[in-house]
Specification:
globular; oxidoreductase activity; 2 domains; ADH-like_N; 339 residues; ADH-like_C; Rossmann fold; Threonine dehydrogenase
């Protein structure tokens, strides 16, 4: 079967692998329809992802169809069903697992990062990792995982209908945070450096937009929040300036939820941690309930999914596309590979 393989030296190859046999006990064989390239994949391609195998088959944003099921698989999972998958592992023994926050397992291995992923024609997974996608098409289903990461951050920040929420970064994960905050009744400020992404954030439900490259962020936020600052800031970029902005601009007694990985150390005015009595919370991956919430949202049919898909490519176009993406990082929402 055909698969895409990335090394850390800006190389990408199409390789042939043995097709999986029939699934064993407790396993499900998936036929991949669409798999998304995400930010971790471009970092792997550019040699900047220290967590990734080398070489590695990428892919954990999955839209697939069940091909076959093994013995012991629940009858609710049947051949022909459109599904996605929970791409994270959990050890069951670490502090996170003990506290039932398996998405933050100390020993997690994500598909396409710490272990070979789903960017191939078939994959076998334990049935517990299979998530039915309801009425969604496989193409739309490939958007579920990245949006679920944004949904989870909103849960971590305990967003309510009386909050003003600023989401910094309007990529796919940030869009998920915007949608979930709007669904909870919050007023949302979308912040980014790209006007096209900000325009799409409004379509996703943001009340206000802020171009942090061309506008005075502090002044605009003061105007939008009557001088208080946002109650919640969700950092979905992973850079020194955005992390500092989150802490500097959040309201007194506010909450900051951090999704992005900064590539270097970040210096803070730590007096704000104390003076503002801030809650600063990490947000990692997503829970199965976040996946289900995204699927339910997408089933409404109100999401402008075509605007979220930058390109659909065939595997043979992957190398050229990744080179283009590395030169145009701000212009990509999601690139889907069609198998």
């Amino acid at each position: 079967m055909k698969a895409i393989q990335i090394t850390h030296s800006q190389e990408l190859n199409i390789v042939e692998l043995p097709q999986p046999a029939q699934p064993g006990e407790g396993e499900v064989l998936l036929r991949l329809s669409y798999v998304g390239f995400c930010g971790s994949d471009i970092n792997t391609f550019m040699g900047r992802n220290s967590m990734a195998l080398n070489p590695v088959i990428p892919g954990h944003e999955v839209g697939a169809v069940i091909e076959a099921v093994g013995a012991g698989v629940p009858e609710t999972l049947k051949p022909g069903m459109v599904v996605t998958c929970n791409p994270y592992t959990n050890c069951g023994k670490c502090a996170s697992c003990r506290n039932q926050r398996v998405n933050a397992c100390q020993h997690n291995e994500t598909l396409g990062v710490q272990r070979n992923g789903a960017m191939k024609e078939y994959i076998v997974l334990p049935w517990e990792k299979i998530i039915p996608a309801g009425s969604l098409t496989p193409k739309v289903t490939a958007l579920v995982e990245p949006m679920s990461v944004g949904f989870h951050a909103v849960s971590r920040a305990q967003v309510t209908d009386i909050d003003v929420v600023m989401v910094i970064g309007c990529g796919m994960v940030g869009m998920g945070a915007i949608v979930r905050s709007v669904m909870r009744g919050a007023t949302v400020i979308a912040a980014d450096i790209d006007d096209e992404k900000l325009a799409l954030a409004r379509k996703m439900g943001a009340t206000y937009t802020l171009n942090t490259r061309t506008e005075d962020a502090h002044q605009r936020l003061s105007e939008m929040t009557n001088g208080f600052g946002p109650d919640v800031v969700i950092e979905a970029v992973g850079s020194v300036p955005t992390y500092q902005m989150a802490v500097n601009e959040v309201a007194f007694t506010g909450r900051v939820a951090c999704i992005g990985y900064a590539k270097s150390e970040v210096s803070f005015q730590t007096k704000y941690f104390v003076q503002k009595e801030l809650d600063i919370r990490g947000s990692r991956n997503a829970q199965p309930s976040d996946f289900r919430a995204v699927i339910r949202y997408l089933e409404r049919g109100t999401c402008p999914v075509d605007d979220l898909i930058t390109k659909v490519i065939m595997p043979e176009e992957a190398l050229e596309t990744m080179r283009w993406w590395s030169e145009n990082p701000g212009k990509v929402f999601r690139i889907l590979v069609e198998f």
